[in-house]
Amino acid sequence: MHTATLNRVYVWQIPVRLYHWLNGACVTALAITGYIIGSPPALQSGSEASFGYWFGTVRFIHFTAAFLFFFNFMFRIYWGFAGNKYAQWRNFILHRKEQFQEAVEVLKVDILQAKSKPIDSIGHNSLASFTYFITFIAFLFQCITGFGMYAAMSDAILPNLFAWIVPLMGGDFAVRQWHHLTMWFFIIFSMVHVYLVFYHDYVEGRGVLSSMGGGWKFIEKK
Ligand code: HEM
Ligand code: HEM
Fold it and tell me: Could you tell me which of 66, 86, 169 has the C-alpha nearest to residue 132?
């Protein structure tokens, strides 16, 4: 059995971890309530229709989670400037040759399974960073389309900043379709993401999985 001496490195600061789990909880609540909004079940009830408000509650949860999700996301963008070197925004945009080389290495490990050696990076590996970047763009799109639709039912300033989105995208119907489709992106992303986090935890043995809990990773001493 291979043994190694490990260094304990504090990678994910508390703001990144809080952001991550609040974001995960919001996306889960938004996907469940959004799915119900898109395909409402025809629930039968003996009481007066005006006493039933379950669908209103579903929408209320969607909108509350939406505001939390939006401000949490804005906070993560701020932390991309204020946080430690692993949280910095420039990690998420592939621009250096080594980042592209590492992304190819990760593909060899994750998809082709042609290698099982650990990836050297301490923060997110380059391919993971790139997929998070795509996810952040999708978060932005979901906020823009969501607040665009919400503008029709609110006098608040924030949603009304996005009121022009609906006519631009061809009307309410089109915006809802895109908003709905993007939900499936998050569902697929989450499944692949959780699988890969477990897989890298196993292949690398550096505590990737628990790093989003305690913040620490364990890196071989060179
Ligand atoms: C991960 C984030 C989100 C997901 C997965 C999501 C998902 C969905 C889905 C699937 C629908 C139903 C669309 C349809 O008719 O088929 C919906 C509706 C809607 N969402 Fe979102 N959403 C998210 C974020 C947001 C945000 C940030 C807002 C901002 C306020 C928002 C506002 C709305 C509004 C206004 C509707 C229409 C509700 C209605 O007409 O009853 N959503 N969402
Ligand atoms: C049980 C479910 C989940 C687990 C165990 C998990 C675990 C992790 C771990 C360990 C990392 C850090 C990986 C590394 O160090 O390179 C990470 C990062 C990330 N995860 Fe998750 N995750 C989960 C659910 C989700 C969900 C539902 C979403 C959103 C759709 C999400 C979005 C992200 C993002 C955006 C990052 C990058 C964080 C940043 O730098 O701000 N995760 N996750």
Answer: 86
Structural domains for the chain: 15-39+55-220 (1.20.950.20)
Q: Which atom of ligand 2 sits closest to the CA of residue 11?
A: 15
Helical spans, DSSP H, in 46-96: 54-82
Is 0.85 surpassed by the pTM of this model? yes
pLDDT in tens, 13-71: 999 999 999 999 999 999 999 999 999 998 888 888 888 889 999 999 999 999 999 99
C-alpha 211 – ligand 2 centre gap (Å): 10
How close is the Cα of 27 to the center of ligand 2, in Å? 12
Q: Which of 126, 67, 62 is nearest to 95 (CA)?
A: 126
